Input
Amino acid sequence: MFKQTYRLFFCSLIMLLTSCASQYEPGRYRNEVPKLDMQSYFNGKLDAWGIFQDRSGAIVKRFTVVMDCQWSGDIGTLNEDFTYSDGSKQKRIWTLKKVGNDQFTGTASDVIGEAKGQVSGNTLHWNYVLALPVDGSVYNVDFDDTMVLMDDKVMLNRAIMRKFGVELGSVTLSFTKRSNTTP
Output
């Protein structure tokens, strides 16, 4: 009986530790095209459509985002306006900074500390902690965020949310960059 309990505990521990690790390997995407240029793609107006799914896969929220993005040298401002399916609204303003070859940091009022991001080929990978309001409380949640540029207009994004290494759910987004002639 002790061996069985020990084996079950050991297997559970391994599953928990491997679930905490990011599946992102920067070198894996370095040859993927089109190459993501953060300062070019996140410049101007973008629209996004997204869903939040709980860990069972149920869609809990739908939302849209209108983004107005501008860069001045190595500093970018991403002004995001969210509208949720229940009619609620939220604003987030990211300040991004290019800190090295294909490396970026980001801050926002609801980001705890600093987001760290790396571009590889057509992919951007972010890690950050977000102060997430839920039913009158605020929870600091780890985000493991991967964004993939599909073409010069469309980017797909999937973020896994975790607390204490346990997956809470995921956010999936589709971004579309507006053409310069769109008002």
Summary: Residues 8-21 have pLDDT under 50 and may be disordered. Residues 22 and 144 are 7 Å apart (CA to CA). The chain has one domain: 28-177. The chain is about 15% helix and 60% strand.
